Amino acid sequence: MRGRFAPSPTGVLHLGNLRTALLAWLYARSAGSSFLVRVEDLDVGRVRPGFAEQQLADMAAIGLDWDGEVVWQSARTSLYAEALSRLDVYECFCTRAEVAEAASAAHGPVGAYPGTCRALTDEDRARRRAEGRVPALRVAASGETVAFVDRVLGEQSGFVDDFVVRRNDGAFAYNLAVVVDDGAQGVEEVVRGADLVDSTPRQIWLGRALGLSELSYAHVPLVLGADGRRLAKRHGDVTLREVSPENAVAWMAASLGLAGSSPRDMLAGFDPARVSREPTTYP
Ligand code: GLU
């Protein structure tokens, strides 16, 4: 089950992110599989120079290793363009506020885009362009509910609306890039934080639309701070800048009920079927 970890270099990895990386590594390595790392640096508005290198160094510092060269999404835009050319897409001129309003007025599934721009005529589009609006591209999805079984969370499903595959700033959207890369890199199992489970039905749908093989999924519970909110920088000392790699690994092992002072030591006791569904708190 070839696995991967795909951080976005928008900040320093905190212990929650590192624990997810460790779990992704444990799932892959315990199955004797390869483990890849991909830098998801497409969002130029949020990516900061140096963070990717820091993230890779922090992963290495806690004892994670990976196979082959690290892949950078910013160097792969021709792959995303090629995939996009095979999809049935349409231009969407809606602002965020308009999408939210249209979604609530349509009484459809919560937050789902109701297809406002799907039926625009050429004149409608020309008028919006003349107003200075720049379109995003959305897939004309089937509007079906996609169900899947998650190795940690169990049965999951979600409605697939017409979601964005290229943003109006020209960037290829996260969902498109992830699906194209997982397919191109031969990833078989996606292990990532439970905060991303809502994107999975869209990604499964897109994988099918692009003729890719179906992946297996494990969304691992998040780490919360003492206030019960998702662990973040504002919680203070939560990165390897403040916590030593040894202490970080010791805390991760304890939180997973595993023994050992390195990821390799933890392999012997790791059982994917026993990963808790409950969030963990740090410290
Ligand atoms: N790059 C995404 C993030 O850091 C995760 C991508 C994925 O695991 O699918 O939130």
Automatic annotation (TrEMBL):
Pfam family name, one: tRNA-synt_1c
List of residues binding Zn(2+): 92, 94, 113, 117
Cofactor: Zn(2+)
Group of enzyme by EC: ligase
Keyword terms of this UniProt record: Aminoacyl-tRNA synthetase, ATP-binding, Ligase, Metal-binding, Nucleotide-binding, Protein biosynthesis, Zinc
E.C. no: 6.1.1.-
Gene3D superfamilies (alphabetical): HUPs
Gene Ontology CC: cytosol
Molecular-function GO term, any one: ATP binding
The Glutamyl/glutaminyl-tRNA synthetase class Ib catalytic domain, residue ranges: 2-239
Residues at which ATP binds: 233
Residue positions of motif 'HIGH' region: 7-17
Binding site for L-glutamate: 4-8, 40, 174, 192
Coiled-coil regions listed in the entry: none
Cofactor note: Binds 1 zinc ion per subunit.
InterPro entries: aa-tRNA-synth_I_CS (IPR001412), Glu-Q_tRNA(Asp)_Synthase (IPR022380), Glu/Gln-tRNA-synth (IPR000924), Glu/Gln-tRNA-synth_Ib_cat-dom (IPR020058), GluQ/Sye (IPR049940), Rossmann-like_a/b/a_fold (IPR014729)
Similarity section: Belongs to the class-I aminoacyl-tRNA synthetase family. GluQ subfamily.
Function comment: Catalyzes the tRNA-independent activation of glutamate in presence of ATP and the subsequent transfer of glutamate onto a tRNA(Asp). Glutamate is transferred on the 2-amino-5-(4,5-dihydroxy-2-cyclopenten-1-yl) moiety of the queuosine in the wobble position of the QUC anticodon.
HAMAP family tied to this protein: Glu_Q_tRNA_synth (MF_01428)
Record-linked NCBIfam families: PRK05710.1-3, PRK05710.1-4, queuosine_YadB
Name this protein carries in UniProt: Glutamyl-Q tRNA(Asp) synthetase
Organism of derivation: Solirubrobacter phytolaccae
Organism lineage string: Bacteria, Bacillati, Actinomycetota, Thermoleophilia, Solirubrobacterales
UniProt gene name: gluQRS
